[in-house]
Amino acid sequence: xxxxxxxxxxxxxxxxxxxxxxxxxxxxxxxxxxxxxxxxxxxxxxxxxxxxxxxxxxxxxxxxxxxxxxxxxxxxxxxxxxxxxxxxxxxxxxxxxxxxxxxxxxxxxxxxxxxxxxxxxxxxxxxxxxxxxxxxxxxxxxxxxxxxxxxxxxxxxxxxxxxxxxxxxxxxxxxxxxxxxxxxxxxxxxxxxxx
Length: 195
What we know:
The chain has about 200 residues and is α+β, with helices and mostly antiparallel strands. The protein contains 3 helices and 7 strands; from the N terminus they run αβαβαβββββ. About 25% of the residues lie in helices and about 10% in strands.
């Protein structure tokens, strides 16, 4: 539970090394930001935002990032950035200006930088319209929020995370509605997590 951590980076690192992921406590306003982005995306009835490169027509202009998606990115970026800086021993210095803001631009396209970890990116997936193979992320940290809809049952597709250093059946399926953080290949202090 990242927000309750008092000892800083050592406790977070220990959780990543042992459990493979951290559940981040969020308040009602933060959860509302995440849920709003998922609700807006569900109306699109597609697998991924932004669309898979090449799926859009070549003549189409780059899409403006919808405000709920921009707010979602800003929140997730803030969580990942804070966690990475704390675990690196650099404190909780998160940039004052969010990388998207409410301007309809994509991440890091507005004034207010420089931002740490500015190669961060953002995707929203709807597994009713596709699926991903298990994989390990290349980046530093991954932050994920997933929530099933009222009509979905426990048998629907869900996120599975492989605990570090475990053989089959070392997979766990965290509950829906939690914000999770785990290490990618770019984070040397903890094993990258297959999911």
